[in-house]
Specification:
650 residues, alpha/beta, eight-stranded parallel β-sheet, five-stranded antiparallel β-sheet, 22 strands, disordered N terminus, binds 6-O-alpha-D-glucopyranosyl-D-fructose, binds calcium ion
């Protein structure tokens, strides 16, 4: 039985800053983490948030969730929940002041995965000079800012997210001079560049780590999470997000090293002030070069519970790794983020967007609200799969789940916070492939998703190839895969008795490699990405879906994206306008963006079938600006998406 936090009563009244297993569910609602956990559980089980007002539900004691959940939740879960609840006991009060205008709020971002974007020297691997060659393409599309996935020296165990030297460019990608030229050209063309900052872990080939495991008395030993074993085995029961245990044994120091991700990605010990200072120095040297900010990899994991307590198997079944609850949103996260910003981003007035897989809206407010002085934005990924589903699960994504989820962030995220709008990245299969296997709706779905990203309130992050509606590839053999996480998954499935064919069917559906096949520039060999065999096979899809063909076609996804971005650039209403929901049924998602006398009405059919239009479009008042169908019809057709300008208010 885990020790439960004492039940603190002051003058007989429970102090509202100390939760215990006797606390009632309704009491959690005032805390950011408690609100998010309850809301997520209700959302996952398709229940409405109002259920919390039901006195029976609201009065359930935390401790009784173990029996009520029939063991799905265990004592360790309750103990951890109580500990996290007591860290931040008040939800953020959003300000109602007018929104501060910032370049990163109006900018349209484009994420480049350098390995797969453009190969300039014919070695089959994308590189920095390839990106420089394509800057006019990005400028022509209307891109304002580029997020560059890691280009630092790395052994590529996790394709660059395992950094061996933060201040050296990966040889396959080019030289620092190539990078300097890229940055100069990006700025010369009036765009901005943010880099990927991976400071939760380094490669095990980093010089700090080599020193750390060479000698316990090394000053670098404390830079990592190295612990003696317990009772002849690992320090605890944590597992890696990429499968298998989370500890490597090092004979040289007779200790175990923690890796939340691959075996070659060793977690940094942020408790060490010397490490933090070393990281801040590195960040400042990159900012001194003139880059405009960073995307911070798994930044919500940097603070671990120093006790490194045993993880709950129950939680692992929900989040995919044992112990994740002790590293996700840890005790000193806000302290570290405030210090990181004060020591680096604030000094250079640089932008920061964190990656926070699993972070809910209330915790996101704690991290991004302007007055908190932590990060400017955060990616959370609730929208990437339907509730209770994951990218490896065989299901068709139902777009109707997006309406309540996105509306919540539009209406409740406050004027001192700013959403990040992302539907594709280098870790997730492509949206068209998730929503429907019918190729006929592929461009309709792409345009629908892009319309949401570019007309909702928030910063849009277009992932390379999303602008032409690239979709998932087919991976038939293990040898087709490159992603360490997917290869581990395949081996795990086979070890559990799946046939290679069955294992490949599952892995092919959800593998991150779906997003990492080469960019499809034209219909020549390898899609114009390279003059030789690429590091990962190009999809045959490039014969029907490529930039060259789409740039010339009026009704292509590329042309739609370009027109959307242009509309947003020309109308501040689509950036800073008020979001006004239009009440319709679950099958359509309709809303207005209004600023001054200018209003836009966005009408979306979330179904793959026809449905009735829910609001009269008054011909003389509504001017169609963009639509993913070529002509108007009485009914709304599958995934029909239209943007109307509403006539000037008389
Ligand atoms: O796809 C996922 C895991 O299977 C995501 O949860 C992902 O691992 C998570 O969002 C963290 O991703 C980031 O850190 C990883 C790296 O592999 C990803 O590419 C990066 O986006 C470790 O650095
Ligand atoms: Ca190359």
């Amino acid at each position: 039985m885990h020790p439960v936090v004492p039940d603190v009563r002051i003058n007989g009244i429970r102090s509202n800053t100390m939760f215990t297993s006797n606390s009632r569910i309704k009491e959690l609602f005032d805390t950011p983490f408690g609100y998010d956990v309850i809301e997520t559980i209700l959302y996952m089980t398709g229940k409405d948030i109002s259920l919390i007002k039901n006195p029976i539900v609201g009065n359930i004691k935390l401790g009784s969730l173990v029996s009520l959940s029939k063991g799905m939740l265990d004592d360790a879960f309750i103990d951890t929940l109580v500990r996290i609840l007591n860290r931040e006991t008040k939800r953020h009060e959003c300000s109602k002041n007018t929104v501060d205008q910032k370049w990163w709020k109006s900018a349209v971002f484009y994420q480049i995965y350098p390995r797969s974007f453009m190969d300039s020297n014919g070695d089959g691997i994308g590189d920095i000079n390839g990106i420089t060659q394509k800057l006019d393409y990005l400028k022509g599309l209307g891109i304002d800012a580029i997020w560059l996935s890691p280009v630092y020296d790395s052994p590529n165990d996790d394709n660059g997210y395992d950094i061996r030297d933060y201040e050296k460019i990966m040889e396959e990608f080019g030289t620092m001079a190539d990078f300097d030229r890229l940055l100069f050209e990006v700025h010369r063309k009036g765009m901005k560049l943010i880099m990927d900052l991976v400071i939760n872990h380094t490669s095990d080939e980093h010089k700090w780590f080599k020193a750390a495991i060479s000698d316990k008395s090394s000053p670098y030993h404390d830079y990592y999470i190295l612990r003696p074993g317990k009772n002849g085995t690992y320090p605890n029961n944590w597992t890696s997000v990429f499968g298998g245990g989370a500890w490597n044994y090092y004979e040289s120091v007779n200790e175990y090293g923690l890796h939340i991700f691959s075996k070659k990605q060793m977690d940094l010990n942020w408790e060490s002030e010397a490490l933090r200072k070393e990281l801040y120095g590195m960040v400042n040297r990159w900012l001194d070069k003139g880059i405009d900010g960073f995307r911070l990899d798994v930044i919500n994991l940097i603070s671990k519970d120093p006790q490194l307590p045993m993880g709950s198997e129950a939680i692992a079944s929900l989040v995919g790794a044992v112990g994740y609850e002790h590293t996700f949103y840890g005790p000193r996260l806000h302290e570290y983020l405030k210090e990181l910003r004060a020591e680096t981003f604030a000094v250079h007035n640089a932008f920061s967007v964190g990656e926070g897989a699993g972070v809910g809206m209330e915790v996101a407010k704690q991290i991004t609200a302007e007055g908190r002085k932590e990060l400017d934005e955060i990616f959370n990924f609730e929208q990437l799969d339907n509730p209770g589903e994951g990218r490896y699960d065989d299901y068709e994504y139902d777009l109707r789940y997006l309406k309540p989820l996105l509306s919540k962030w539009q209406l409740e995220y406050g004027n001192d916070c700013w959403p990040a709008l992302v539907f594709e990245n280098h870790d997730n299969p492509r949206m068209p492939g998730k929503v429907s296997n019918d190729q006929i709706y592929r461009d309709k779905i792409s345009k629908l998703i892009l319309t949401l990203m570019l007309t909702l309130r928030g910063t849009p992050y277009i992932y390379q190839g999303q602008e032409i509606g690239m979709t998932n590839s087919r991976f038939r053999e293990l040898s087709d895969l490159r992603d360490v996480e997917s290869i581990n998954k395949y081996n795990k499935l086979v070890s559990l008795g799946k046939t290679p064919k069955e294992a490949m069917k599952t892995v092919s559906k959800g593998t991150r490699d779906n997003a990492r096949i080469p960019m499809q520039w034209d219909d020549t060999d390898h899609g114009g990405f390279s003059s030789s065999d690429p590091w990962i096979a190009c999809s045959p899809d490039h014969h029907i879906c490529n930039v060259l063909e789409q740039i010339k076609r009026e009704d292509s996804t590329y042309s739609f994206t370009k027109a959307l971005i242009d509309l947003r650039h020309k109308n501040e209403t689509l950036v800073y306008g008020e979001y006004i929901p239009v009440k319709t049924d679950n099958d359509t998602f309709c809303y207005i963006r209004k600023l001054g006398s200018t209003s836009f009405y966005i009408e979306i059919n979330l179904l793959g079938t026809n449905t009735k239009r829910k609001k009269d479009i008054i011909k003389d008042k509504y001017t169609m600006m963009l639509c993913n169908y070529d002509k108007h019809d009485e009914l709304l057709r599958p995934y029909e998406t239209t943007i109307y300008l509403i006539g000037e208010e008389k």
